Amino acid sequence: MNNERNFGLDLIRFIAIILVVIVHSSFFLNQNFINSIYIIDGVDLFFVLSGFLIGKIIINNIIVKNKIEFKDVKSFLIRRWLRTIPNYVLFLIINIVLIYFNLIDGFLNKYLITYFIFFQNLYKPYDFLFWESWSLCVEEWFYLTFPILIYIINKFNKNNLKLTFIFSIFIFITIPLLLRISKIEYNINHSHFDLFFRKIVILRLDTIGFGILGAYFSHYYKQILFNNKLIFLVIGLFGILYLNYSKFPIEFEETFKFSLSSFFIVLLFPYFENISKNNPLNKPITFISKISFSIYLIHMPLLKLFSKINIYSNNYYYILMYLTFIVSLLILSYICFRYYESYFLKLRDRFFKKIDN
Question: What is the per-residue pLDDT across 87-104, written as a single tens digit (0 to 9) for each?
Answer without folding.
Answer: 999 999 999 999 999 999
